[in-house]
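This part of the workshop introduces the protein records we will be handling. Getting from the letters to the tokens is the skill we practise here. The record below serves as our worked example for the rest of this section.

…
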Amino acid sequence: ASGLYASFPTAWWDKHEPRSARPPPPTRAARLAARAKPWITHPPLRFIKATLKASGEVLGFANWYAPARPMLENVFREDVARREGWVGEAGYGEEVWAAVDTGAWNTEFAGYDGIRAEEVGGELHWYLAPIFVVEAFRGRGVANALMGWATKQADAGGHAMYLEAFPAARVVYERHGFVGVEGPGREMVMIRRPVEKGKA
């Protein structure tokens, strides 16, 4: 959960989890971890982590939605979680959405899904949501390794890749061939087209 909280700016969390309604930090983190559980257990998703061989310490992770038809919606959405029947399962009760402004939450992620559908919804694609590297290991190639795994998969299958990135993170993705998309609501959108073998 700490990695997820670090992946978005404080102002973003203040909008979606109002400070006035937040439970104590351990409870808040546990609830977020429960909401993220489908990222690991939902079959079309690929949860990739980078670890130290000696200790097994996690250095970072990336969550990729593998190519699928119909296009997979963001499983972090409360409305998607309910439709899929996850709310009510062990460890995923109603309380995990307590103190979350679900209206703002669903509207934002549904907006992202709508733009993705317009840009690449008609083709098989990989979707990143999200990537995180422990602060002490940033700038040491962890993000590149996590990205490299996915770009190899995408190129091998001839698939596009899609992600949303805050401005400070765009340079990492540009190194891997992602290009920004212009247009209303697309300030964070980046797309990478597959590289043919021998043309990298």
Observations:
- The chain has a mean pLDDT of 90.
- The first helix runs from residue 2 to 7.
